[in-house]
Write a structure and sequence with these properties.
about 120 residues, 4 helices
């Protein structure tokens, strides 16, 4: 059966669901709140550090990538926890992989910011 929401109505529904997801992450996930706060604090730093619009976009994009990854990790954890809290190798693996994805996104962010900051300081 085809969904009844099409066109602009579908876009409005999808926007509503996305907003609900962001609100849930803010309410229930301390790591998401911390990463949002860091991202907000880094916006003015990025505007000073960046020497071009492309550099600014890159600095902001890696911060947003951390948030995206955290949202996906939180979604994985919620689904695994919904299925059950008993210890299972696949559940543990899924949670560990989600955590690893967040860690890699943070490494990417730190590396990108470090390289651009270093380049800026050398000039």
């Amino acid at each position: 059966m085809k969904p009844s929401n099409t066109g602009f109505k579908r876009v409005l529904k999808a926007t509503s669901y996305s907003w609900q997801g962001l609100r849930a992450a803010w309410k229930h996930e301390s790591a998401f709140r911390q990463e949002c706060t860091i991202g907000i604090l880094l916006i003015p730093v990025a505007s000073v550090l960046a020497e071009s619009a492309v550099q600014l976009a890159i600095l902001l994009a890696v911060c947003i990538l951390v948030l995206i990854t955290e949202l996906l990790n939180s979604a994985i954890e919620a689904v695994v926890d919904r299925i059950g809290h008993e210890r299972h190798d696949l559940a543990g693996r899924a949670k560990d992989m989600g955590s690893a994805a967040v860690a890699l996104s943070l490494v990417l962010m730190l590396t990108t910011w470090g390289l651009l900051a270093g380049q800026r300081l050398m000039h």
